[in-house]
Amino acid sequence: AQRVTQPEKLLSVFKGAPVELKCNYSYSGSPELFWYVQYSRQRLQLLLRHISRESIKGFTADLNKGETSFHLKKPFAQEEDSAMYYCALSQDNLFFGTGTRLTVIP
Amino acid sequence: NAGVTQTPKFRILKIGQSMTLQCTQDMNHNYMYWYRQDPGMGLKLIYYSVGAGITDKGEVPNGYNVSRSTTEDFPLRLELAAPSQTSVYFCASSPDPFGNTGELFFGEGSRLTVL
Predict the structure, then answer these.
(1) Segment B70-104, tens digit of pLDDT
(2) Does A27 touch chain B (CB under 8 A)?
(3) Chain B interface includes A46 (CB < 8 A)
(4) CA-to-CA distance for A87 and A98, rounded, in angstroms?
(5) How far is CA A62 from the centre of its chain?
(6) Neighbours of A63 (CB within 10 A)
(7) For chain A, which domains are there?
(8) Rounded CA separation A67/A78 (Å)
(9) CA-CA distance, B46 to B56, in Å (whole number)?
């Protein structure tokens, strides 16, 4: 069963525009959700976790249990945000979505 | 700290050959993992280990074996390579199980092609 769905494989936005990377999950309990990022020629790394309610590099993600979503948002995209983004759900294991490649156009 | 180091970065195998992907970490983490990522797919857990001497299967363990003789090393062995094992393999480690902080520290990945 697909636990984490990222519907967009590719997403392009202009610099300065808002960006939203979508993530939906299927889990009946209280989910632990995360966003990971992989910049070009770098390792996959944790960007943020929902439980921390933090903003990292201007990105935030709100857990919406009613919509079972955990979308990643940034009000003003920067060129350095171009990367591969993965949503992940912790449920005895860490289940990753298929990822969204974000390209910020100068 | 080097973090998590994987070798080799690239390898081409013939069908039926065997090989070992090496993974070592210098962060003294108890938990280590092997994932594979097929094109257009998310990462899938192959095997994991909660400490030296203890390993367990993940989602897709068939065709692979692991061992954990030390805290630092967690090699992944492919026996009788098949084209379906063509993938990018990631090793990762964490100080606690993924259910806690969710932060895994990843290696750079190993791209394996089986022809």
Answers:
(1) 999 999 999 899 999 999 999 999 988 875 677 89
(2) no
(3) yes
(4) 8
(5) 10
(6) 18
(7) 4-105 (2.60.40.10)
(8) 28
(9) 9
Cβ-nearest to B98 among A93, A98, A99: A93
For chain B, where are the alpha helices, taking DSSP H only?
Answer: none
Which class in CATH covers the domain with range B4-114?
A: mainly beta
For B5-47, how does the pLDDT look when each residue is reduced to its tens digit (9 = 90+)?
Answer: 999 999 999 999 999 999 999 999 999 999 999 988 888 999 9
Distance of CA B97 to CAs A62, A91, B29, B48, B112, Å? 23, 11, 10, 10, 27
A8 touches chain B (CB under 8 A): no
Question: Kind and range of the H or E element at A84?
Answer: strand A83-90
Region of B76 please: left (phi>0), alpha (psi -120 to 50) or beta: beta
Residues of chain A with pLDDT under 50: none
What is the C-alpha separation between B4 and B23, in angstroms, rounded? 7
Q: Chains A, B: CB contacts under 8 A, how many? A: 49
DSSP one-letter code for A22: -
- Mark yes or no for CB contact B104/A46 under 8 Å: yes
Integer Cα distance of B6 and A104 in angstroms: 30
